[in-house]
């Protein structure tokens, strides 16, 4: 069977092209037209000859026919761009040329020029002299909820002219994958004001936590009674997840995680208060100071019915509030359930539009644990580039109650903002990050409700970091991986960790790479496993990662780095294991995969994978 052509200098990376609008498929060069492709259909290249390209949608099937070379554009990187939430930055302008984008970013009057061009773009008054071909949507388009292809055709690694920090200038093309408006979005667009919120508290119910459980009930009760029977009360609902630790290590703990009361739409929230009343801290101690908080958060993310499947009316804003006085179990801890860390859990949550907030009770008893716990919870509690970690110094009960009140009141104000109502928090009491969060979630909701699409342009240049605010990421590059490619990553990491874990001493460590090459050679016998057999680094086996504007620990691990010491090897192994666990979750989650063409085999469905979770 024919295989696609390889990119020069590689042994596993196939040539691909994207169709221009109106691209016609011919049975043979110069032959009659058999069909037309939609714009930006990714295709594999099987042959090239005198102005014609033989193409097909699958690398594992026969080519479909021929297209004229001028009707397609080479797609060398297989990477796509995803807009971030524009809540705290200006909308991205998309320039016709790289020079036009550079000139704009180096303009001394950038902010004024930007405002003028955005206004012209919004009113349809752009002229060719402006150099702008399109603008980012006003509302947020979540690529996981509404898949779109914004292929990156080229990139230039550069410095941002404001701060000289690294920045990418990206040449992109854009068109929504599907033209129809999703049914849910179409229905929602006719019912303004449908915005509502789901909040799941994740309680540490280990021995020391009883006073804080009662304080949460007290703070929550006051807010619930204030909003009960109002429009706001109808639009904010609660659930509770509890966690402890490994009950096999301390049988009196009874459970590791438990759903105390599910998140659901209720006429009133009194059942939630009753559930808190009935929640009791453990009477026995856990093994070690750290608790399995990550298991509790994972279950809140994955087992909560955020989409309200019975009514097909998902919660529009989604929050998890973690309350604990201890750090999370490290994945290496034998009593930890999860093999992934806070970074992977946070990324999964944000892709599902779930905000994780942490109230960390820094009690005197855990003083030696505070720095470790704070570092992990800061990683966990991020959303759209902002951090939602709230340390409670000394475990102060008053400070804790005040913080719970601040957070839940702010979340009710997010609903008021969406409904156009006055907020109850006084301006001096408002938190900038929570203000941003309310705006970001509203933009995401409007994007879904109104069926917002990525801008419909062909080729343009955009900046990865906001032109006027370099600390804000405007465009997030992602790798468009097939399920077969992710399975290859998972199989390689599985083999590498298995071999690495059995390595003992310097001699065996030195032999590690010989064993790895044997594994790679064996994997290469499966045509679906695209691995380079002559790699001299671990990441080099996955050639499609080496050409990305991305550098990872694995990609840079060669024999010299591996032999630099047992602590370095331990860090590499732990990183591989955590990513392997996340890949397996994605591989078995049908909601993350999209078919790019009708009849696409399972292995060729795609997922826009964030760079920071690549090997």
Automatic annotation (TrEMBL):
InterPro entries on file: VWF_A (IPR002035), vWFA_dom_sf (IPR036465)
Domain VWFA: 198-411
Top-rank taxon, per record: Bacteria
Segments forming a coiled coil: none
Name used for this protein in its record: VWA domain-containing protein
Taxonomic lineage of the native organism: Bacteria, Pseudomonadati, Pseudomonadota, Alphaproteobacteria, Rhodobacterales
